[in-house]
Amino acid sequence: MELGPILDTFDYLADAAEFAGKSIGYTDLNRPPFLSLVTALFFLFGNLSITPIFIADGLLSIAGCIGLYLLMRERLSSVVSFVGSLLFATFPIVITYTAAGFNDVSSVGVAIWAIYLTYLAVEKNSKWFYLSFPVAMLAFLTRFNMALIIFPIFLYIFINWDKIRNRRDILIGISLSLLVILPFVIYLWMKFGNPLYTFMDFFGTSGARAGGGISEHFAYNPDPLYFLKNLPAYTGVQSVMVVLMAFLGFMVFLIKKWRETRKGRQLPNLNLKNNLKAKLALMVVLLIIFFFTFGKVHYFATELIFFVAAYLGYNLSKEVGIRDWRMDFLFFTWFMVFFIFQSIYVAKDHRYFITMAPPVAYFLVRGLTWAARQMRVCFKDKNLTLYLGAVILTLLMVFSAFSQLPGIEKDNENSKLFNHDSQQASAWLINYDPQYNSKIIYADLWSYFAWYLQMNVGKMPIFKNNETMYVGPKDYNFTKEDNIALNNELEKLRPDYYISAWKGMNFTSYVAIQRFGTVTIFKRVGG
Predict the structure, then answer these.
(1) Rounded alpha-carbon distances, angstroms, from residue 483 to 267, 467, 486, 510
(2) How much is the pLDDT for 210?
(3) How far apart are CA 172 and CA 166, in angstroms?
(4) pLDDT at site 269
(5) Residue 463: phi, psi to the nearest 5?
(6) How far apart are CA 65 and CA 73, in angstroms?
(7) Element (H, E) at 395
(8) Where are the alpha helices (DSSP H) in 143-273?
């Protein structure tokens, strides 16, 4: 709330006002609706303001942390589950976007509950499918790429197919999930005559592969290993601490195995039957195809290849005697489906890693548990190594979280200033032209001004090195040719006012009438 919203958040706020029956005249219904719907509940009982979306985002994020604790608790101790949930909550990348009015952390929070409810449905009572599939649909409606959560959900169902007694409950759960999306689909059909209006843009762009896209956009990055290379920065010093502990545990493990070998103990031999050899061969072939086609074909094809390979791999592990790793498998497939998508997708923003953060937190604490077991020092049947590690990590995480806050504020200083400038510029225009809302207004970063002016504001494109985009150029050093292209666009659109966020712009038919920091209001002159 101190920093204020940024571009995307204003779109969600405008949609929330629309859903609450308090439309400002501007919407962006290409955005996923659930965060806006939750925010709209606040608007129903109060005035329009920016605060409710921070609250809605924060509550969904906190719910996700609780859900992650409960999910980990099904496999790990309460202490380790607490550390794992806190790890996720204090990852630098997660803290940066928690309660920021974005849908990154909140969508993951909803997805965590979809996974947890699926686990309960498989392991305890299939009636939980009545909730798991509808919640998975809500995750999709919070952020569209969360549709991929269906891969680990179905993989977990398939590998435990024999355990599910009432399989009809799966179909009932899927049917209930369709009821969740039905009101929104009907709304789109009534408003646009197209029930898929909101989803078309995502499905049209999500298949972008390395080598395509707009190279002048800040998020353009064809490197498929981008997220792995930045993993330490995303997870912070606390994850480095866990990795070091796991490494020490591994060294102790190797020493123990070396001593056992010297005493004459033999490692187990695996005698695979012919049918297992065939499965192994098929899995190896699929993995080879996976590696050689990664980033070169549509992400959905890669996901399907991984789906089949993972299913075969789990069956092989079960038949050779590797047991009790279903939870590990669930988190592993969760990580992989989003790693595949985000790595192939040509636009790579740091915040996209948040979809992979819960599995990373899980495997970190699994490593912590394993390391503590190797280096255990017991007192009254309690592993003191584990408890000591948990205490040190908790203190480190709390310190890390508080130390990040000044950096977050500093990194967003320009955004905060622009928010203030756009608010001041909007207030000035309202006083300058009392009939402003009957005029045609276009703007860079239009959703700021649509919210503050409470009216529809046209989207002005950005022209950069012969490429056209609407937001997010790599830099704002525009050339003379870029200025000419923008001037031509203004001559074509002919708005009464144009609110610019870029410095040094000059236009044929527009004159600057007021400036507020980086915001300049241009007015059309002449006919």
Answers:
(1) 71, 13, 5, 13
(2) 37
(3) 10
(4) 53
(5) -115, 120
(6) 12
(7) helix 384-411
(8) 150-159, 168-192, 197-205, 226-229, 231-262
Q: What is the pTM of this model?
A: 0.91
Residue ranges of the chain whose pLDDT lies below 70: 204-213, 257, 260-275, 321, 527
pLDDT tens track for 77-87: 999 999 999 99
What is the Cα–Cα distance from 402 to 415, expressed in whole angstroms? 21
**Residue 45, exposed/middle/buried by CB under 10 A (0-12, 13-18, 19+)?**
exposed
Residues 38, 58: Cα–Cα separation, whole Å = 11
Amino acid at 195: P
- Locate all alpha helices (DSSP H) within 74-196, ordered by sequence: 78-90, 92-97, 104-123, 129-142, 150-159, 168-192
Say which residue the tokens 């929104």 belong to. Answer: 184
Tokens of 264: 């004459």
Q: Are 497 and 520 a contacting pair, CB within 8 Å?
A: no
How many CB atoms lie under 10 A from the CB of residue 270? 8
Say if residues 112 and 358 touch (Cβ distance below 8 Å). yes
Pairing status of strand 497-500 against strand 441-443: parallel
Helix crossing, 78-90 with 51-73: angle to 10°?
150
- CB hemisphere CA count around 140 (13 angstroms): 20
SS3 523: strand
- Provide the pLDDT for residue 205: 63
Q: Residue 480 burial by CB count (10 A; 0-12/13-18/19+): exposed, middle or buried?
A: exposed
> What is the per-residue pLDDT for 264?
57
Phi, psi (deg, nearest 5) at residue 183: -60, -40
Token digits for 496? Answer: 């009464």
Query: 136 near 176, Cβ under 8 Å?
Result: no
Lookup result for tokens 């009464």 = 496
For the chain, the farthest-separated pair of C-alpha atoms sits apart, in whole angstroms, at 96
- 118 class by beta-carbon count within 10 Å (0-12 exposed, 13-18 middle, 19+ buried): buried
Residue 63: its pLDDT value, please?
97
pLDDT at 270: 52
pLDDT at residue 209, as a whole number = 47
Token output for 279: 């499965």
What integer pLDDT is reported at residue 126 of this predicted model? 95
